[in-house]
Amino acid sequence: MPYRLLSLCLLLMMPLAALGEGFPRLSTLADDGFVIGAEARLLGNGEPGETLGSIAPRESLSPASVTKVYLAAAALDRFGPQHRFATRLVSTAEPDAQGVLHGDLVLEGGGDPALTTEDLWRLVQRLHQAGVSEVSGRLVVSQWRFGPVTCITTDRCEGERRVDNAYSALLSSAAVNYGNWCVTIAPARTPGEPADVTSCDSQARLPRIDNRVKTRPDDSGTELTAERLTDDDGDVMRVSGQISTNARPREVYRTSADPAEQSADILMAMLDQAGIAVQGGHATSTAPPPASAQRLAAVDSEPLQELLLRTLNYSNNFMADTLALDLAEGPRPSLSQAGDALEAFAGAIPGHGSATLASGSGLTPENRTSAAGVNALLEHMFRRPSLFPSFVAALQSPGNGVMRFIRRGSDTFQHHVMLKTGTLNQPVTVRAVTGYFRTLSGRWGVFTVLVNGTAATPYLSWSTVLDHLSQDLDAMIQAH
Fold it and tell me: Full-prediction pTM beyond 0.90?
């Protein structure tokens, strides 16, 4: 047999892990200066399974939103899948025969990461059913569990004065609607007139609106920009651009500067709509309600397993960091203390190694872990039968996940993999992905890929990363 042919046959017979450490296509990103930590391995019966691919698996790198798998695992471990967070209306007073509550009405924020205006409306209706028709004192929104939480990322700190996004919401245990204002922009009937801009949640114009959107003739196109500004009188939503007379209404979300104040504003408007007058106005507080306060109305969140599905599927930063704060020990915790709780959880996982987790969302660029560490977490959850179904359900299959950018690769990759991605563009590029796979023979495996750039590396598209990863994982799945 010719020497070249013999060499080729020997190469094809080599174990997959020897071919570019099992990630031959993904490893080419190193040629452009990207730092890669990667590992894929099968799960054994109580022992570490066969490693199928490995590139610097213990390299400490930024995981971006892959951090959220730590949050999900720690929350399930602490609370259990069916845990619900309660939000209550309480008071030291009781309504008299005329329905007057002679005292303050307190909204006690319970750290529900998905409290909505629908929940607030239920509270108001239950308050009415409890016989309250008037409050002689104030409405007090208590964020005594946590909030306002000191910002530690650029986006959130800048958002205290102005913001043009919905993802960098500030944090409070009494926040509503993921810490975001929502306005609806609809065309006027006549071209040239200002658009009709209203609150999504209330008949009251909340927040204040600076409407610079013009209505244009049919089929003129719709182009909108929105920015939330804050002045001495509170939040203002400034919307600009144009909308066609035959366009459908558009909803726009921007984070609020003070989530507890936002909750107070919305709840006051709802009490007014329900005919429950509050004579003393409203305020926010960091003090807990008095021990003698009695519950007048309450709403519970969805079960934790449902909250985690939303948190991970949509990579919701507000929900993740709120849940991390729920995990923190001590009164009025900071994000750093929430990170301490996550680090303690990770440190107790066999084979994990060290990690730096300054937030539950991954917005903090200081977060660091390794591909081997994340895989140790995934294996740890796999071996917990009571928690694993809820944990894996929060991941996405590329073939039917809500994030369309992951719908790439072969049919094998699309339908044999469950994953969570993480993205950062500043201060350096981060493209991270982790999850489980099932081989053709039905065996379970775990994989994690952390790709970090530098100031000198070019832009890295998700399509490039997923195309390379899908080919490498496809080969592993097919071979087993």
Answer: yes
